Amino acid sequence: MNTQTLATAEQRAAARQLVELIGGNWATQAIGVAARLGLADHVASGVTQVDALARACACDASALHRLLRGLAALGVLRLDDDDDGGRCSLTPTGELLRRDAVLGLNAHAQWWSQQAWAVWSDLMGSVRTGQSTRQRERGQKGFDHLDADAESAHLFHRSMVELTRLVAVDLARSPALPDAGVVIDLGGGHGELLAEVLRARPGLRGVLFDLDHAVDGAQAHLREAGVAERVTVTSGDFFAALPRPVDVVLLKSVLHDWNDGDAVRILQRARDALAPDGRVLVIERLMPDRVEDLPAHRTTTRSDLNMLVGLGGRERTAEDYDALLSSAGLSRRRTLAAAAAFSVIEAVAQAPARRQGPPCIKV
Ligand SMILES: C[S@@+](CC[C@H](N)C(=O)[O-])C[C@H]1O[C@@H](n2cnc3c(N)ncnc32)[C@H](O)[C@@H]1O
Fold first, then answer.
1. How far are the Cα atoms of 30, 146, 173, 240, 294 from residue 133, in angstroms, in the given order?
2. What span, in angstroms and rounded, lies between the C-alpha atoms of 273 and 25?
3. CA–CA gap between residue 66 and residue 319 (Å, rounded)
4. pLDDT tens-digit readout, 56-106
5. Could you tell me the distance, in angstroms and rounded to a whole number, from the CA of residue 314 to the centre of ligand 1?
């Protein structure tokens, strides 16, 4: 029997949809290569004709033309045939691949198509073992992989600046932030969020705290943002003692990098650094209790798997965060929704008597 004839129109549509999902990696590589070649910068500078672009990018003209066609199909640029063999222009999406675009994502496209791609290639190993690819293959934990690779470290921190810039203005307006005092951004990277917070609240001073490979870039970034004179940049390890006392500890996209035991240790250090009445602000995407076929849920579950393969971390539900906070001697005061499915969880130190109870999460 010809089974084809038994398939319904709905099944055929589902199969075609699955073919598109299976082939989704081509967009990552096409956009990543465009970013690495600096295609958008060349086009923006007036090099729009395909042969001239190929010379500017040191590429084979015919192969580059094929890449440009793919990018046109993805809506990244427009490709018009002309007597010279094709000319392209940038769409609003393509403009974001320019290195100097206001909300540009050039570094993120490069990071995702190279370093992230490499660790995703053995998702199977991570699903079988629960360990990150870097842990399994090289015995590397946390951000060890960036210690001896300055180029990757720079790309990673630029990528984080680009992603955080998409939400920083909104986060800086959060009512969970006070107007005066000292705020420390733990694992603050190059300081994109801290800069926005200080710009929005002139009465605050800041401490940018991160590993060696972040701090030089942070100094430069904070200078460019015009807030450097209100920030102390400190290189250190947030598993050890922190500068204290501080009124606010910011932890954006940090706890999701770590397993539960490490996340509790970071929260304990944060709690110990607080001034009386100080608060910890955990800024993360919350894993919904029930995941559905929704764009926001795709973003959160993609990030969850990215944490698994890259760092051995995870995205967590609101309940999971309550358990971490409680184990670290902190209590959640409120949770505020923010842009792009982020939440701001505001936590304060528990009264000393409550801290003596058994921890919910063993560290
Ligand atoms: C995912 S990034 C988040 C950066 C920034 N908070 C943001 O959202 O843009 C995690 C940051 O934690 C920093 N980090 C990792 N381990 C650290 C440690 N032991 N001590 C201090 N910072 C650390 C990394 O260097 C990196 O900048």
1. 24, 15, 37, 26, 28
2. 43
3. 49
4. 999 999 999 999 999 999 999 999 987 677 899 999 999 999 999 999 999
5. 15
Which residues neighbour 113 within 8 Å (Cβ) at sequence distance 6 or greater?
Answer: 28, 29, 31, 32, 33, 35, 36
The pair of structure tokens assigned to 296 is 């926001």
Identify the residue whose C-alpha is closest to ligand 1 atom 24: 187
254 CA from centroid of ligand 1 (Å): 6
- Entry field: residues in the chain: 363
Architecture of the domain made up of 19-98? Orthogonal Bundle (1.10)
Instruction: Give the integer Cα–Cα distance in Å for 332 and 345.
Output: 7
CATH code reported for the domain at 165-289+313-355: 3.40.50.150
Res 351 pLDDT > 80: no
Residue ranges of domains in the chain: 19-98, 165-289+313-355
Q: Let me know if 42 is a catalytic residue.
A: no
- To which residue do tokens 């967590």 refer? 316
Ligand 1 pocket at CB < 6 A: 142-143, 160, 164, 187-189, 192-193, 210-211, 214, 237-239, 252-254, 257
* Integer Cα distance of 86 and 317 in angstroms: 50
Residue 358: pLDDT above 50?
Answer: no
Q: Say which residue the tokens 């500017």 belong to.
A: 56
| Ligand 1: centre distance to CA 189 (Å) | 6
Evaluate the omega torsion of the peptide bond into residue 359 and state whether it is cis, within 30 degrees of 0: no
Does residue 268 register a pLDDT over 50?
A: yes
> For residue 52, what are the CA distances in angstroms to 41, 68, 136?
13, 13, 45
